[in-house]
Structures are given as C-alpha cells and as structure tokens.
Design goal:
Layout: E1 5-8, E2 15-23, H1 27-34, E3 35-37, E4 52-57, E5 63-72, E6 83-90, H2 92-104, E7 108-109, H3 114-121, H4 127-138, H5 142-152, H6 155-179, H7 190-208, H8 211-219, E8 221-227, H9 233-241, E9 259-265, E10 268-274, H10 284-299, E11 302-308, H11 315-326, E12 331-336, E13 358-361, H12 370-380, H13 396-417, H14 422-440, H15 446-453
Parallel strand pairs: 1-7, 8-10, 8-11, 11-12, 12-13
Antiparallel strand pairs: 1-2, 2-6, 3-4, 4-5, 5-6, 9-10
Helix pairs in contact: 4-5, 6-7, 6-14, 7-13, 13-14
C-alpha cells in the first residue's frame, strides 16, 4: 500500500455534490497539485478536518470547478493513511476531469472497495465492521439500516470478542499450568472447564440463531403471490410496488411466468414474486408457468394467497389456499376486489395444521385495506424483543464461521464428558477460537477478504 489511490466516491449522475477521494502517502501532495485555495496557505500547511474553499484545476491547469477540500492525516483517517477529499458540484464531466488531474499528479484509479480494504488492513475496521459498510450502502429498510449501523459501531464484534476472550482465558490457563508446573498456579479443574464450555456453547447458540433474522433483513423475504387467473394477483403486485410492473388485463392467463421485484412494505424487505394463475390448461406454456408458481410458493418465506372477492369461491381458489397452507411457511389470505360488489362464499375447511396468519379484504385498485395488509406483514417479521441493533449475523460467511465455532465447543464438551485429557479438549477450544477469528478477521484467508470486497463500489 505504498501507492496513492483516487476515485469518484459518488454516483456518476448529475447531482448537487460530487466527491473525489484520495488515500495513500502522496494524497495531500497530489490534491495540492490540483486544488488552489482562494486564500491562505496550501493544503499541506492546513490542519486536518478543515474545509477550504478554492479552485479545482484539470491536468492542463484550466479551472474545472469551485469546490471545498479537506485532508485527514494518518493514522486519524478512515483508511489509516493520509487521505483527502474534494467536494465538488456533481457534474460527471467535471468530476472526470478532476480525477484525470489527480492521476496526472501521481495517483492511480482505486479498485472496488479499496479504501475500505485499506481500512481493514490498517486495523481501522475489523471484518464485521467492514461488511457492515457494504450492508449500510445497500440497506433498503429502516431495520436494515439500524442493523448495519449497529454492526459498524461494533455490536457484533463485541459479542464475538466476548466469546473469544472467554475461550482465550481457558487456553491461557491450561498452557500456564502445563508450561510452568513449579509456579503457584491454580490447577486446571474439569468442572471449571465444563462450566466455561457450557457458557460458550450457549452464547454461540444464541449468536447462530440470529442468522435467519439477519439474512432476511439483508436479502429480503421471498414472497409469492398465488391465486387463480384474474384473482387480482398482478394488480396487487403493482400496488405493492407503486408502479405498473406486471401486465393487467381482463383476459385470464395473462401472466405466464414469474415476475420478481423488491419492495419495502411494513418495514420488511419483500422479494415479491407474481405468479401465473393456478388452473389446469392445455396450453403448454401456461402450464409451465403454473408449475413455476407452485415452485415459487414452496421456496418462499411468505405466501400471499389471493381469492376474488367479487365472484364465487371456486375449486381453483381452494387449490390456491391449500397450496399456501401446505407450504409450511407463514401465509396471508387476501380477498381482493373490495371495491366491486358481489357476495363471496368463503372456504371454511381446515388448514392442514397451517392456518393463515391473517385474512385481509382489500382493493388494490383503490388502496382500501392495504394498510391492514401492511400491518399483517409487519407483525410476521418483528424485531426480536431485547435484541441489540447490529448484533445479528447477516451473511453466510459469518454464519458458517459461527457454526464451526459452535461445533468445536460442543466436541470439546463431549470429549470432556467422555473423560478425555484436558489437552484434547483444549485443541477443540483452539479450533473454535480460530473460527471466531475468521469471523472478525483476526485470522482470515486472502481469498475470503477478496470475495468480501467484491460487493463494494469504486470509491468506498
């Protein structure tokens, strides 16, 4: 990391503000070559974290913009290196000229995520905080924002470090007794080790249980909308999105394939799947769409089963409800077309052990009843009581490392119960510590960090 990197840190579209960012040993001198303050000393003589108003030049010395500049010297910066930022007007053309000038001044183009990667390598962020940066950038709901912000603040790292430190104490005690037998050190008692392993296992169980909630926060809840043709599925799909995404006509069977979009609804990120209407058809294409509808319901975490409230209850309506109930996942029965008149005979049979979480009557056309659906969805995915923002496992890498740590601790406890000597038990404890070290980045392979930083945009 002996070179200096530069990048445009804001989206390349016209905006009020655009930012050029630099990091590296020549960051201050490079920015000084392209930026001239209107008054006073050059940037190399300015104190850190002071906004200076001046002129940005292109590589030929022509004026590009009037902007603000600030510097942050190592180690008190985001990356731990000398850094500088130019806060310009958000013209993509002006920012490109400024970036070319910085390259001419000795900087090179930053790679995706390289600023945060340098922060990790310089010890400014651990791996959980690093991942939180990407999660915060991509957060689509208030709950996801709070989780990412809490993780960036160190909530998950503190939880993991607490478990890690407890296991470190066990290993340190064991090796002290083994390596210094003549010292006055308390013996290594099996009961003490058993209690400590039980406590660690309980904490790891609790941590592993947070993954499902964390995964849904980040990835969204797969949510299939099922029902017979013309029940109002696509109209509901469009109403949830707030724009016309799916084709809506009076002709049954218009939707022949699944259509997927993401939307925040009831504070929950839903991965909506509009499906083909459930019915028997001689049309091979439509029948393939029906099969995909069933598959979508099976892999979903939430099913919205729509029946037509303006017509009679049919065998196809019953089939849609049975499909939702047989999914084994939470589901909501939606009686659509509340704006239209017409009595409806509702099915009153059993639910095969999986009753609907709610029944909502609504009109997707007028919006009437949509607030009740929103409340029903929010009630199905509440924040766990007493949960700490930021202390959830949010991706498969974290969950896998926590799982390996949990299994290693369990093996150690089983070995202790079987009468194995303490050194065999401690080997399992050390394996658990290694897994936890991977989670936070104490010990992690280069290919793992490379995969993590693939999620980042250039300039972050």
């Amino acid at each position: 990391m002996k070179d200096t990197i530069a990048a445009i840190a804001t989206p390349l579209s016209p905006s009020a503000v655009g930012i050029l960012r630099l990091s590296g040993p020549e960051a201050v001198s490079a920015v000084e070559r392209v930026f001239t303050p209107f008054r006073g000393e050059p940037m190399s003589a300015r104190p850190d974290r002071t906004l200076v108003y001046g002129v940005l030049h292109d590589r030929e010395g022509a004026v590009v913009d009037h902007c603000l500049c600030t510097v942050f010297r190592a180690p008190n910066s985001y990356t731990g290196e000398d850094t500088a930022e130019l806060q310009c007007h958000g013209s993509p053309a002006a920012l490109a000229l400024g970036l070319e000038a910085l390259f001419a001044a000795g900087a090179r183009q930053a790679k995706p995520g390289e600023f945060t990667r340098r922060a990790f390598l310089n010890g400014k962020l651990d791996l959980t905080r690093t991942e939180a940066v990407a999660d915060l950038i991509h957060a689509e709901t208030p709950a996801a924002v709070r989780q990412a912000a809490g993780q960036l603040g160190g909530a998950l790292a503190r939880t993991v470090d607490g478990i890690y430190d407890g296991l470190t104490g066990l290993c340190a005690h064991f090796h002290a007794v083994l390596d210094y037998p003549d010292e006055d050190i308390a013996p290594f008692e099996a009961a003490e080790l058993s209690a400590a392993l039980s406590a660690a296992a309980a904490e790891l169980d609790k941590l592993a249980a947070t993954y499902e909630r964390g995964r849904l926060l980040n990835e969204g809840v797969p949510c299939a909308i099922v029902g017979r043709p013309n029940a109002g599925k696509s109209t509901l799909f469009n109403a949830l999105l707030g724009y016309e995404r799916a084709i809506v006509t009076d002709i049954p069977g218009t939707t022949r394939d699944t259509v997927e979009e993401r939307v925040s609804f009831g504070g929950v990120l839903l991965r909506l799947i509009d499906t083909a209407g459930l019915r028997e058809s001689g049309d091979a294409v439509e029948q393939l769409g029906v099969e995909r509808s069933r598959a979508a319901a099976e892999r979903s975490e939430l099913v919205l089963a729509v029946t037509d409230g303006a017509g009679d209850f049919t065998e196809e309506d019953r089939e849609a409800l049975e499909l939702a109930a047989s999914s084994g996942k939470p589901w909501i029965w939606i009686v659509s077309k509340r704006d239209l008149t017409g009595p409806t005979a509702l099915w009153g049979a059993g639910w095969a052990g999986n009753a609907p979480a709610a029944m909502v009557s609504l009109s997707a056309q007028t919006g009437r009843g949509m607030d009740q659906l929103e409340q029903a969805v929010a009630a199905l995915f509440p924040e766990p009581p007493g949960s700490q923002a930021g202390a959830l496992l949010t991706n498969a890498r974290q969950a896998e490392a926590a799982g390996r740590a949990r299994e290693a601790v369990r093996r150690g406890a089983e070995a202790l119960s079987a009468g194995m000597p303490p050194d065999a038990v401690v080997a399992d404890v050390e394996e658990a510590m290694s897994a936890l070290g991977e989670l936070t980045g104490r010990t992690v392979r280069e290919d793992v960090t490379a995969r993590i930083f693939e999620r980042f945009c250039v300039g972050k």
